Amino acid sequence: MPSSEATAAVRIGARPPLRPGAALGRVLLLLVPGAYLAALLLAPLFAVVRAAFAHGPLAFAAAVSSPLALHAFAMTALTTAVAVVLNTAFGLAIAWVLVRDDFRGRRLLSGLVDLPFAVSPVMIGLMAMLLFGTGGWLLPATRALHLRVLFGWPAMALATTFVSLPLVVRELVPVLEEAGIAEEEAARTLGASRWQTLRHVVLPTVRWGLLYGVVLTTARCLGEFGAVLLVSGAMPGQTETATLLVYRLLEERRDAEAHAVAVVLATASVALLAAMKLVESRRNREHAAEGAA
Amino acid sequence: MRRPLGTRAPLLAVRGAALAYLLAFVALPVAALAREGFRGGAAKFVAALASDQARAALGLTLKVALAMAAVNAVMGTWIAYVLVRRPFPGRAVVDALVDLPFAIPTLVTGVMLVALYGPQSTLGALAGASGLRLMYAPPGIVIALLFVTLPFVVRAVQPVLLELDVGQEEAALTLGASPWTAFRRVLLPPLVPAITSGTLLSFARALGEFGAIVVVSGNIPGRTLTAAVLVYGEIESGRPQVAAAVSTALLSFAFALIVTVDWLQRRARHAVL
Fold this sequence. Notes:
heterodimer; A: mainly alpha; MetI-like fold; 2 domains; B: mainly alpha; 79% helix
């Protein structure tokens, strides 16, 4: 494929003379970033897969299907499910309020949405301990409800929710901004209830953005580590998620098993990445079709 | 402002739900953190930050984040340029690959890097033999941060580059400018805001990184212990006040960076319109 520089020269008909070293420069232009990505992303990925299968596929299968591993995967699924459901429902409400609603302090709200991006996972763990631990502001309330939050799944789910809170909102805000309010108002003028407007106008408009946000949230939740490490107590077979299991196995110098569980997590991430790209291309195609119509 | 038809009750319910959710999930925990950080007054807050261990950890965190940001600004721009302007077979795959760090758990990132560059691997042993210690040392932390923040600069620069007209660049080349001069004088200036935004965001992200670092750094106090890992250690040893003070300082800095980027981006958008 000709480079844009070459096509320009052909179009204008006067190719500037090639300087010495220009060919080398063109090769380096592609080679350097290629090598960078290979060394940073691909080679480590291959290394961990190779290490995970170093003792054969049977050892790999045994490591990822032990009762403790299966329980860890189930805990990851549980915390992810809670966070995804909460952040999808409330993410939709927050995005709608940010774009369509108007009241004083709305900009402050936008800042609050971004705040979790600035917070380290360990700080989230610390916050949960300060709120639900001894002397915490929320401890009396949870005691009254007989709910054990800290060192149990509720705290793990809450911490995971905090971490992934901005993702759905940040996907939806530009989509809602671009769609404009006209269709929603038309539906309302024609007598649609708010619920009907939401179902037949708002949701179809934002569906690809929403789906993308949900997949992104899932990926982020599956991999949550620092916050969950602090609030869970990391009890094997009880409050241990998949990432916590990898960490414990590393600490116990059981590297092969740690690598095996890490590969399962990495595989899930790559699958989610593929899903993200699929959603993106569908959205772009529909966008292009609408633009042409 | 226009009020849609019907009663305002549902609107207020949605607004209330959104507000309550953000206050309960974000504002309240952050307030609890700041309160703990300042428990015992501002003097204790400052004392927590000024201890030898905290100073060393904060210094290291800033140093590795700066090193990462410098490499990321250059390589991120370079990758974005090649992806947009130099079509090559397999570009879609490489483009998708750039998002991989957003999907991979950060702890797994650390595990992967140690598997390849750790002292027990062939590569790590080779580097070690020539005197370069990659893992369990500051270079390993920088590599882990580069992995985790790879998408920030690329994804900030890419859309701006797509919008830029190729004509000016071609004109410069036709008039005899070298490709490097054309890049530096024609292409780079309009990209600077995007590069700055992406780099600042990656820097803010690096300040709090924990999962990838805790595996690759070795966590030697005073030498490879970053602020986030220090916070973890202080919590585990039952000193939440120090942990909260360091957290409050880091969080405020990172949040200020993010707000700045938001402001820069909004200004850039208005300049275009």
